[in-house]
Design brief:
single chain, 148 residues, alpha/beta, 23% strand
Length: 148
Amino acid sequence: MTIGDLGIVRGVVIDADGRVEVTLTPTYSGCPATEVIRADVLAALSAAGFDDVHVLTVLAPAWTTDWITDAGRRKLADNGIVPPSPAPPARRVDVALSLTLPSRDDEVRCPRCATADTVLVSQFGATACQAMYRCRRCFEPFDRIKPY
């Protein structure tokens, strides 16, 4: 799993003088991993021979789980973390007819046995951006990245 897979890397620019500018958007503004990710990016680029590196953290637009790549979703699932469903395509809603939109998360499937017979245990899992679920069939607890 890479920060590119998670959609945290928003851009990389290398100018003619070899200066590198990396733009990152954390998964949420208070993410405690932001400084560690920044330091890791600087270290990796330094090890690759880039001396003039600037890492920018931008909060707007806010990160969304829709930025997780398909490969990232597969890697999360392969490691027992249920990725959020992609957002449905935008559609026009006649407010006079409906004030509710369908949920972007119809079901949460267990990463071990694939059943949708799961229950939310806690709004907060291993990190604030995850929720804890439990499978009713195999009883396995698992985290799921919260959809934003």
